[in-house]
Amino acid sequence: MATVRLAPVLxxxxxxxxxxxxxxxxxxxxxxxxxxxxxxxKDQIQPSGELSRFINIYVNDQDVRYLQGxxxxxxxxxxxxxxxxxxxxx
Length: 90
Prior knowledge:
CATH architecture: Roll
CATH topology: Ubiquitin-like (UB roll)
Order of helices and strands: EEHHEEE
InterPro entries: Beta-grasp_dom_sf, Mopterin_synth/thiamin_S_b, Sulfur_Carrier/Prot_Modifier, ThiS/MoaD-like
Number of helices: 2
Number of domains: 1
Structural class: alpha+beta
CATH superfamily: Beta-grasp domain
Strand content: 15-25%
Radius of gyration: 12 Å
Pfam family, one: ThiS
Shape: globular
Protein name: Thiamine S protein
């Protein structure tokens, strides 16, 4: 199972967990497994079926936008990081 690390803003939707495990051989499969256990995460990550443009996803520290997106291969020992984009300032 891959390790999925959650940013603090996503943790309430996953029972407060900092990281969880999810199964799948692609990012799509890993996310779908994650949503099975934590359905509220889907509204934050894929509200319309596509990845939100306000969330960055990394597999082993590589941005999936520069890999194969949702079809990025994820191995059992890989780490997926879900990191919402933050904005602010003046």
